[in-house]
Write a structure and sequence with these properties.
The structure is a homodimer. Chain A is of the alpha/beta class. In chain A, about 40% of the residues lie in helices and about 20% in strands. Chain A has 15 helices and 17 strands. In chain A, strands 4, 5, 6, 10, 11, 12, 13, 14 and 15 form a nine-stranded mixed sheet that branches. A three-stranded antiparallel sheet of chain A has the order 1-2-3. The first copy, chain A, has a three-stranded antiparallel sheet with strand order 7-8-9. In chain A, α8 packs parallel to α9 (about 230-240), α10 (about 255-265) runs parallel beside α14 and α13 crosses α14 (about 330-355). The radius of gyration of chain A is 20 Å and the shape is globular. The mean pLDDT of chain A is about 95. The interface of A and B includes residues 317 and 320 of A.
Chain lengths: ~375, ~375
Amino acid sequence: MSFGFKLTGTERGGARTGILTTGHGDVETPAFMPVGTQATVKSLSPDDLRAAGTQIILANTYHLHLRPGEALIKEAGGIHRFMSWPGPILTDSGGYQVFSLADLRKISFDGVSFRSHIDGSSRHLTPESVIDIQLDIGSDIMMVLDHCAEYPCSRETAAEAVARTTQWAERSLAPYGPRVTRDGYERVIFAIVQGSVFEDLRERSARELTSLDFPGYAIGGLSVGESKKDLYGVAAFTAKLLPEDKPRYLMGVGFPEDLVEAVARGIDMFDCVMPTRNARNGTVFTSRGRVILKNSSNRDDFGPLDPDCDCYTCRNYSRAYLRHLFMAGEMLGPRLATVHSIRFYLHLMEEMRQVIKEDLFSQWRKEFYEKYGKSDG
Amino acid sequence: MSFGFKLTGTERGGARTGILTTGHGDVETPAFMPVGTQATVKSLSPDDLRAAGTQIILANTYHLHLRPGEALIKEAGGIHRFMSWPGPILTDSGGYQVFSLADLRKISFDGVSFRSHIDGSSRHLTPESVIDIQLDIGSDIMMVLDHCAEYPCSRETAAEAVARTTQWAERSLAPYGPRVTRDGYERVIFAIVQGSVFEDLRERSARELTSLDFPGYAIGGLSVGESKKDLYGVAAFTAKLLPEDKPRYLMGVGFPEDLVEAVARGIDMFDCVMPTRNARNGTVFTSRGRVILKNSSNRDDFGPLDPDCDCYTCRNYSRAYLRHLFMAGEMLGPRLATVHSIRFYLHLMEEMRQVIKEDLFSQWRKEFYEKYGKSDG
């Protein structure tokens, strides 16, 4: 089974719908990928994920390489079997984590050396080894090792990151090319455009990477502290530089409103820990804005978290019960909150796909903000 | 809908099967009640509980009185609706928790005064108020406030606890009698036999309480540190003192082998935090004995936790994945382990009900130990 991407609709403003075909199933875009860093979306089972409408999840190469190690996952029959999620999986390359989590990081043109944040062991990753690790893990979409510059950074630093990212992207194709078939499934490699907030560097990065003809392109180096204006501006600018017939993935984004704005600017794929991480801490996203579950206003509120939501949590539990679970430190609280927040994100994407197809996106966007603006957070 | 108990079979050794009828459904006995102290069985949703074969759960009056308070639960429409568990619920009276958890406990013949372990507030519980609290909570089976003496204790201390427990049991009947109908459901009160390991005191306690004609009887004051010999001996001795046509509930017991031995001695109902608490810490019960998930022997074991188990965890995950979740501190680990351990306990009860009906209990018991003895824990 081979990989493919087919555009199914483009709204006049630039928002688009498509179908991503992978060896483990199709993904309708625009799509949000719940984050399962360590081969589990925190607190949720695959059944919960499916019930929430999940099409594809993201797992993390850096974390899985360190624990339990790609050899064990390969021996288990690959990540799909290991974690019992039969659907599509994308793995982040670990570049971002090496730059943000690891100790004693040393970067060279060969790759990155660092100490594991778990046991302090010395590790070295190269563009080539990161692909081999992802092949062992068995993900459907692999990401190149990239150099994500910190924000803010100088033009020179950003330019160096762009040059290194291109070099590494080229090297990641050397062993097998951009499409690798294993166990009857075609896995593909996506490249990552860098360049910080510098338009000419984004342009250079996009030009160099698109010349290598990857099956998909990500926009990296955003959601790292820049303003919303820069986030939306750079995403829009970069999206226009990417081939129309390839999926565009905006990494690490974001808030519900960021998804809406990025979809409006022609983005097809997203991932973010926001819905899961915030939910575990008792803050959930709803059609009326953010809700902090521990707020005393929820103490005797026997209505659902979100009257417009069809998730397991909203169908079965009151805000009062959810608040009780969080006040009592009960594990079911984070889980039920996560179920809702993931469903809210996925439902948002479903709605956007629908209104793009009907060419009603800009009207829907206005209505979304009218409701969502009323936050009680 | 009214409460009832019907014996459906008695094995020659004394083990028995029955059906407990409550306003929220029937319970086949012998039955194990997963513990949902704070109106949630830690880490599990009601759907998980049902899938594991749960018939009835236990919640705790002491904890719910302190947080969120019975008034809120009543306002929510009762505990069944509050926690979204439509099946039968038994509430422990809180006597045991007052004696084991609360600070500055002061006991009198009127009741117990103590400070909340949550916020230090002063509280006072009486046999009458404990029934009112349980009526507000809305459980199907309420327990009397009892005096559970510590172990070991002197004859005098045990005798005083027996006398107080009888007095309090009488007072708990005064306001409404042993059967109270509210919202169309009949709720009932069970008494608790005390007497520590002193047979004559157990006899006195049982005689005094059975003369009050409660709809069911519990055996309290066990599983508090005594030997297995005493646990089984006192349970057997006390069970024989109780009316044959009333359910017999052995509180706070126990290990799988304890359930087998107590069923053999004529016990019908059990509750224990063991399967849930141990599972959260990574120790699970299986048909081959206890398994410590973090043990390195599980590192590359791609087989299921328990080859004889039909639970969600055993059907979908390997020991290697479960170990990974525990090593990585992932919340799904405790949850999947709890699903299994609860299913193991409930399946054990199902098996016992079956073999009692077929009068094959003693043979089955031998086979159980042949398998279960082989523990890798």
